[in-house]
Amino acid sequence: MTRTYSATEAILLTEGYRPDTLTSLLNRLSPKPKVFSYDVKADRATLVTDMAQFKAFNPAVQTMHVVGHGLEEETLAELGNLQVIPHLSPLPTGVLSASWPKKITLGEEVQVQGKFTSKDQATQLYLHAAGAKRDSVEIKKGAEQTFSLKFKPKTAGQFVYHLQWRDTEDSVHKEQLPVLVEAPRLLNVLLLSSSPSFEVKFLKNALAQKGHGVAVRSQVSKGIYQTETVNLPTVQVSRLTPTLLQKFDVVLLDAEALQSLSGQEKQTLQQAVSQQGLGILTTFTGSRPKSIPFFAEAVFARISEKEAINGPVKWIGQTTSAAVLPLTSFALQPKEGQPSLAWGNTPKQALVTTYRKGLGQVGVSLVQETFPLALEGKEKLYQGFWAKVLTALASPAEEPAVSIEPIFATVHQAVALTGSGGSQVPTPKIASYKDKTPAAALVGGSSLLSSHQTFTTWPQAQGWHSFGSIGGPSASLYIFPATAWQTRQLHQKQQAIRKASGAERLHNTVSDIFQEEAFPLWPFGLGLLLALGFLWLEEKV
Question: Which parts pass through the membrane (predicted)?
Answer without folding.
Answer: 519-537
